[in-house]
């Protein structure tokens, strides 16, 4: 399906962001590298996309700076520099009519489509402000920056509010801090927790989510998918796993349904951390990550016979057959 917002021939740009400074657990910077090494570029070419990938090197120079906290915020200068680098690269691709597929990073880059809506798939709301954050980890704050909530440190003055609350919807929440719940309520932000997924089913949840942020199905969609939205039995190699998450099929259905709108303009896949599990679990999580990207770009898992063979050992007893 061709998107009305993308140029032809349809082209995806892989933007690797091997960076771990937004949170305390080492190894998440290896996630983008492992996804590309698993053959993601070739897989997307096999389903009909032209693919550009310029390597991960453009962000590495920002990783090793001496960066003391500012107030509660950890690694603020480094996070700001890397985030700005990612945002600039992604925006350049999007303005050229190319679909950016960002591996790592965390969703700050929607400037090229100011009227876009955002479907945020995650176990966590990532909407803490400087005032509400307990940990000071900036990876738990990107949505508040996008919405322009809370006070700002000078290091992040370059981030301008780019999203309205009514253009944001969450799917898969199940580990939300008290301060974040208050923000969601006060800003009337629509969120479908795992309770709603269980109650209504994933098909109805996705329909209601899209009806809320994109009722006429005429706005570009930015899909941000944190693999910890999936149950740890499906994607174990991630930094903040929470039991009771989306199944393999539920996660893929979200991606497939967004693709079917023909409105996808940007995709993030974040929080694959190869350092936190045994080799088999790492391989399992990386394979799921690649499969989600394929689903979002147009190949339903149920029809993915040629590419899903490597997944069968992990899921044959659960969801594929």
TrEMBL record:
Protein known as: Arginase
GO terms for biological process, alphabetical:
arginine metabolic process
Q: Which GO terms describe its cellular component?
A: cytosol; nucleus
* NCBIfam families from the UniProt entry: rocF_arginase
Q: Which GO terms describe its molecular function?
A: arginase activity; manganese ion binding
Note the InterPro entries from the entry.
Arginase, Ureohydrolase, Ureohydrolase_dom_sf, Ureohydrolase_Mn_BS
For this protein, the record's Pfam families field holds:
Arginase
Enzyme nomenclature, EC number:
3.5.3.1
Q: Does the keyword Hydrolase apply?
A: yes
Q: In which pathway does it act?
A: Nitrogen metabolism; urea cycle; L-ornithine and urea from L-arginine: step 1/1
Protein family according to the UniProt entry: Belongs to the arginase family.
Q: Which UniProt keywords apply?
A: Arginine metabolism, Hydrolase, Manganese, Metal-binding
- Which reaction does this chain catalyze? L-arginine + H2O = urea + L-ornithine
Q: What class of enzyme is it?
A: hydrolase
Note on cofactor: Binds 2 manganese ions per subunit.
Cofactors, names only: Mn(2+)
The record lists the lineage as: Eukaryota, Fungi, Dikarya, Basidiomycota, Agaricomycotina
């Amino acid at each position: 399906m061709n998107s009305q917002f993308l140029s032809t021939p349809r082209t995806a740009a892989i933007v690797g962001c091997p960076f771990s400074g937004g949170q305390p657990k080492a190894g998440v910077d290896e996630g983008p590298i492992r996804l590309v090494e698993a053959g993601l570029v070739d897989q997307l070419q096999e389903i009909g996309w032209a693919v550009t990938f310029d390597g991960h090197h453009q962000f590495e120079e920002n990783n090793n700076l001496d960066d003391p906290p500012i107030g509660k915020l950890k690694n603020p200068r480094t996070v700001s520099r890397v985030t700005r680098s990612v945002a600039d690269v992604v925006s350049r691709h999007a303005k050229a009519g190319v679909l950016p597929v960002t591996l790592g990073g965390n969703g700050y880059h929607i400037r090229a489509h100011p009227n876009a809506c955002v479907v945020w798939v995650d176990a966590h709301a990532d909407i803490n402000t400087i005032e509400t954050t307990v940990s000071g980890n900036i990876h738990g704050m990107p949505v508040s920056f996008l919405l322009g909530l809370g006070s700002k440190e000078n290091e992040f003055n370059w981030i301008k509010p780019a999203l309205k609350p009514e253009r944001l919807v969450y799917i898969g929440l199940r580990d939300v801090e008290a301060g974040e719940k208050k923000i969601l309520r006060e800003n009337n932000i629509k969120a479908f927790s795992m309770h709603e997924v269980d109650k209504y089913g994933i098909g109805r949840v996705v329909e209601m989510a899209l009806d809320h942020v994109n009722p006429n199905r005429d706005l570009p969609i930015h899909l941000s998918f944190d693999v910890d939205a999936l149950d740890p039995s499906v994607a174990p190699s991630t930094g903040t796993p929470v039991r009771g998450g989306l199944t393999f099929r539920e996660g893929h259905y979200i991606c497939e349904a967004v693709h079917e709108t023909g409105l996808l303009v940007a995709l993030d896949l974040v929080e694959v951390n190869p350092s936190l599990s045994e080799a088999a679990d790492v391989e399992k999580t990386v394979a799921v990550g690649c499969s989600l990207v394929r689903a979002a770009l147009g190949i339903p898992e149920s029809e993915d016979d040629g590419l899903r063979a490597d997944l069968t050992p992990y899921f044959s007893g659960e969801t594929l057959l």
